[in-house]
Amino acid sequence: DDPSLEKHFKGHRDAVTSVDFSLNKKQLASGSMDSCLMIWSMRPQMRAYRFVGHKDAVMCVQFSPSGHLVASGSRDKTVRLWVPSVKGESTAFKAHTGTVRSVHFSSDGQSLVTASDDKTIKVWTVHRQKFLFSLSQHINWVRCAKFSPDGRLIVSASDDKTVKLWDKTSRECIHSFCEHGGFVNHVDFHPSGTCIAAAGTDNTVKVWDVRMNRLLQHYQGNAVVNSLSFHPSGNYLVTASNDSTLKILDLLEGRLLYTLHGHQGPATCVAFSRNGDFFASGGSDEQVMVWKTNFDAADYDNVLKTQKSGTSVDGTHHSQQSEMECGVHLKKTKPQDPGRNHYHQQEEETIANTLEHIVGQLDVLTQTVSILEQRLTLTEDKLKECLENQQKIIQNKVN
Hints:
- There is one protein chain.
- 18% of the residues lie in helices and 43% in strands.
- By secondary structure, the chain is an alpha+beta fold.
- The protein folds into two domains: 4-294, YVTN repeat-like/Quinoprotein amine dehydrogenase (Methylamine Dehydrogenase, Chain H), CATH 2.130.10; 351-398.
- The strands form eight sheets. The chain has a four-stranded antiparallel β-sheet, with no helix packed on it. It has a four-stranded antiparallel β-sheet with strand order 2-3-4-5, with no helix packed on it. A four-stranded antiparallel β-sheet has the order 6-7-8-9, with no helix packed on it.
- The longest helix is centred in the last third of the chain and has 57 residues, at 342-398.
- The chain is globular.
- Residues 300-343 have low confidence and may be disordered.
- Belongs to the WD repeat POC1 family.
- It comes from Nothocercus julius.
């Protein structure tokens, strides 16, 4: 089934900049250039709440993992934490000196990372609402910053045309991806935490492996890509573009699955719900749309169960060796060849895929070993230097 439009929310008075679902999918938050934050109910006949507090455009919104708080960032240079209830109380954080373009909670809900036009990324504690530290190596506006699923890394995207990867503990930039031809509007971590996807003004979406720091996939579009979101299964990516379309990319097959037309004018933001059965989009047409995913029902259930054997969409038997664990996609088996036993054919395909996976793992190991060797050499050199310096100091003392 194709994705279908489920709900259409109208209430903002200017372009929508950001959308996010609460954990239980009962609520949807949106931010807008009209300086308001809105909380929409997914239940019929339930009213929407308009929260006023920011003095200028709201650039980004996100529910905390528990759904008890909503964070927002604004052109008024503040970050606000809201209680999404009737009263809509909020507290403001001030530390940035420019527009705040991105807010993101860590998966444990304890930390918040924000990105700003002041070229910095800042990390805060949520409960004490205290500023912890800044990351500042970007040389232009920072559009987006996200925690990795395990909270150990931060990825950021900037108008300096780079995507940077940071270690949260050491607070150091561990890698810069510089291969973008334009500004980088948005970046997100794959649910597994092993790769990132970045959207740019050069009309591309690029998927990078953060373990090997190499480009895995490259999708060329016809318009600036403003936003993207991974499906929780990790198999799909949805994007929002200036040509008013939303696109669903199949990451396992490496191809475009659907192009959806709903917005009049640029589609500015898009996000999957936490369990992936809906996605929401916002546009410069002031509208928020909720779409039913539909397309992934069969294989997403299989991935979740990671069962040994399942039936694929077209009814052919389909070996399902916990695809997500191996990171190898076992394609549908070919129609049965009358001259061969179907079972043997399947076994051969499974063995071939397993071998391919083992070879892939060996590559990773080889590269890891070479990195470790380089580090070891560096350490040995440092030790040698220290010993030589010590000798010099002792000699100087003796002399």
